[in-house]
Amino acid sequence: MSIQTRRLKNGRIAYDVRLRTPQGKQYTKTLRTRKAAEAFEAEERTARLHGTSIDPHGGQVLFERFADLWMAHRPALRPRTVELYDYLLRHYIRPEFAAARIVDMTPAWVRRWHANLSARPNIGPSTVSKCYRLLRTMFTTAVEDELIARNPCVIKGASVERHDERPVADVDQIAALADAVEPRYRAMLLLATWCSLRFGELAGLARADIDLSAAVVRVSRQLQELQDGQLVFGPPKTDAGRRTVAIPPHVLAEVKAHLDNYVDAPPDSLVFATPEGTPLRRSNFNRRLWQPACAAAGLSVFHFHDLRHSGNTLAASTGASLKELMRRMGHASPRAALIYQHATAERDRAIAEALSRLAAPISAPKGTVKLHLLDGKGTVPGPSSTPMDAGGCAMEPSRGTRRYPLGT
Question: Most buried by CB count within 10 Å: which residue of 1, 56, 190, 350?
Answer without folding.
Answer: 190
